[in-house]
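Operator note (shift B, R.M.): manual run for N-acetyltransferase domain-containing protein requested after the automated queue skipped it. Running by hand, logging everything below so the morning shift can see what happened. Input copied straight from the record, untouched. If output looks odd, do not overwrite the archive copy; leave it for review.
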Amino acid sequence: MSAWAKKGIVSTHPRSFASQLTRKGRRVKMNAVRLRSQSLPEAGENTHMRAILRGELVGHAFATRWLYEGRQICLVTQLCVKPEFRRKGVATQLLSKLKEDERGVGFGILGSHPAAIMAALWGFGNGLENVDLGVVKKHAHELMATSPVDYVKNAILSGSLLGGDGDGEPEKRSDGSICCAITNFYVEHKEPIAVLEEVRKTEDWPLVSCLRDMSS
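Run finished. Output pasted below as returned.
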């Protein structure tokens, strides 16, 4: 494991936790100590997966497991792929390997990048068309509150799906948000928004968008 891990580009938002880690407008870096506290909590069972192509490390994933209502939950806390190897199925294969031979385990990811969400949907399930929003609506609050990962446990959930009663079908909301988590880790969303626009050309994105440009 390298001493530094990159996680997107920091925004200029004044409350950004990411702004404490690097200069505004540059890619966020974490040293080994902060990376361990953020992605490898002592109270959880942690896994590190690596993707190696012809001897080169091209991607990796961290995941943490814990028990929720007697069932094991596995949440991806970091998913990184080298830029030149993105959109080639590396992330999906990493997550598929993470799930391999597992039974009765709930898998998930908390992130704002559509590419990471798509990789999780294909790696853990059957793509966008089989997203079960009812499960998210029913369990998100309590499940995340039991997480040993601090930024997950302390996240503020928002969006039409996570408030009020219903059968899992999202209600319309003025800002368009359906299923969002505020982690106070503000990063620029120009790249994720561009990816989302590409995804929407061929896919029916069920979560609308929590993305907005936090750079101004």
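Quick read of the result: The domain at 5-199 is CATH 3.40.630 (Aminopeptidase). The two ends are 34 Å apart (CA to CA).
Leaving this for review. - R.M.
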